[in-house]
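User: Can you fold this complex?
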Amino acid sequence: MNKTININLAGIIFHLDEAAYDAFKKYLTQVKNALESQEGGAEIIADIEARIAELFSMRLEESRREVISVDDVSFVTDTLGSPEEFQDDSKEFTQTKATSNKTKKRLFRNPEEKFIGGVASGIAAYFGTDVVWIRILFLILLFFTGIGFITYVILWAVIPEAKTTAQKLQMRGEPVNLSNIEKSVKEELDGVKERFGRFREESKGTQNQIGSLLSRFGNFIINVLEAIFGFIFKFFSVILIVIGSIVGFVLLMALFGVIASTWNIGGFDFITIDGTVLGFNAAEAVLGNGIDLTLMRVGTLLALLFPILGLISLITRAAGRPLANGKILNVFGGISFFVGLAFLLYSGGQVANTFKVGATEMSTVELEGQTFDLRADLLESPEGFLFEIDDDKLRIENVRLTIKKSFDSTSTLVLKHRARGKSNSDARNRAGQFDYPIKQTGGVLSLNEYFTVPKEALYRGQELRATLYLPVGTEIFLDPSVENLLHDVENFHNMWDGEMIGHTWKMERRGLVCIDCEDVEYYNTEQVEEQIEKLEESLEEDIERKIEELEFEIKRLKEN
Amino acid sequence: MRKGILEYCILGILDSSDAYASDIISKLKEAKLIVVEGTLYPLLTRLKNAGLLEYRWEESTSGPPRKYYSLSNTGRLFQAELKMTWEELQEAVKIITTTPTES
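Assistant: Here's the predicted assembly.
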């Protein structure tokens, strides 16, 4: 059983088997690409399609079949010829067109050679230079000032994409040539295939020799590595470029402190940019100022060299004119990538090692009074960072506050300082280095959204978990400023933290109850409590009576 | 080299009788003037757009309706003109190639 695909050609339906469909579609696309840009191209294509339909019908009638096979398709392609062949005649025609276009070249984004939006390749086509130089220019602008990014986005938005073949011609002044790219991809695949084939033969030949196992294994490793790396290197360098660029972007932002506005990546506002060239220091906050930071910087630069060089060689290859010493560049890029990777892995490992053990220190603050006005306004909180160096301190915004019922009659604030380190004592020591000021004046309790640690302590996952224990009968007003501080505060109405702010709450036996929420039904809380108690009592009575009845019944049954 | 000649041949075929594209193709193939059919379609469209050819649709017993090409009035005039030029050229070539050169 074979699947067939229906196509409509000049108003007639044909059934093609899958292989025939693929071959035919490929051929028709080539024809379209070749003719589309010509004057009356659509009509020529329609005529050719009609002729193909005629030929197909003829073939089917001759052999009394219903389905078009690959043979039929190749008969058609042989009869009509390849697009290159029948373009010969009109060559003069297109050439004159192309040269006249060169004088009125237009700036387009190039969708066929794009890395992000095709801006660089479009500009390169416009100025007739190699796209590599434009990209390098963008990268330099990006990494050293950040202007590159903004410029790119603006250009991306402003320059239209070259969509039609005519626009592509206008952009380049030459016909679109897919065959080059196709050829290079094919060569690549053939190379890999060949190597696998060679390996298979070699391993067969040495099978019976003494000690062949070892050499076979060696051959296997070498061949497989060669094949795999050859393939990965060429085809996945694009992916590496993307990853490398993102990593590089983030890291280089970190390293050079690039400026624009606040970047929100993955929900972590961890890059703050404030208009100066020194702002960001996350890398320093984690790595310290020593050898690890230097290693990370050098490693990043070395590792970035690889995708850049890979890009250069890939593009020159796609353009059909490989660099003279492209191989050396590739090897150099590969070596620098692995050296850079080693650097990164080493310093990454060093850092990971210092996150190994966690420890918690606790401190307790006793509070006075029966009513509280909770605010988070003690110190001004800058927006959008998880941790940041501030002079000789490291500010960390990772504070969570919850409110619970106290077991005695005192109000206390319990602070759990957590930190990580390479050993238990290291972590414990770090957990002790916290600065979290608390102020109570009258009924107002002022807290902070962040705490500080000495800069030398470095960022090692420090966090602060505060619990406010309130005895029954205490009232607390949650000022809107504590919104970011509250985390999973349990309450009688099951309200979200965000809804709880701006209201006054009372700690009762059954938990926190809102006493000034308008749309909450159980406003008069004492009444409700009374009702519940009454219900419980009557229920208990009911049960007791029932038990008595049953016992009486049992007794009666036994006597009988 | 073949450019122009091929056009002249098409006009010549159509001068004697109107024809389908496939008829023109088979004649040109017989004379070994074209190898692949695809060459012809851009040419026909160009000649038609230049006003030298006209066509009408005709139903076909097998396959889709076909274009039935014929010479337009300008096409006829142009063909006659080309014929004269061609004969002149032929004559000239003949004279040059058959007359022994004196050095």
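The longest strand of chain A covers residues 357-367. Confidence is low (pLDDT under 50) at residues 88-103, 174-185, 255-280 of chain A.
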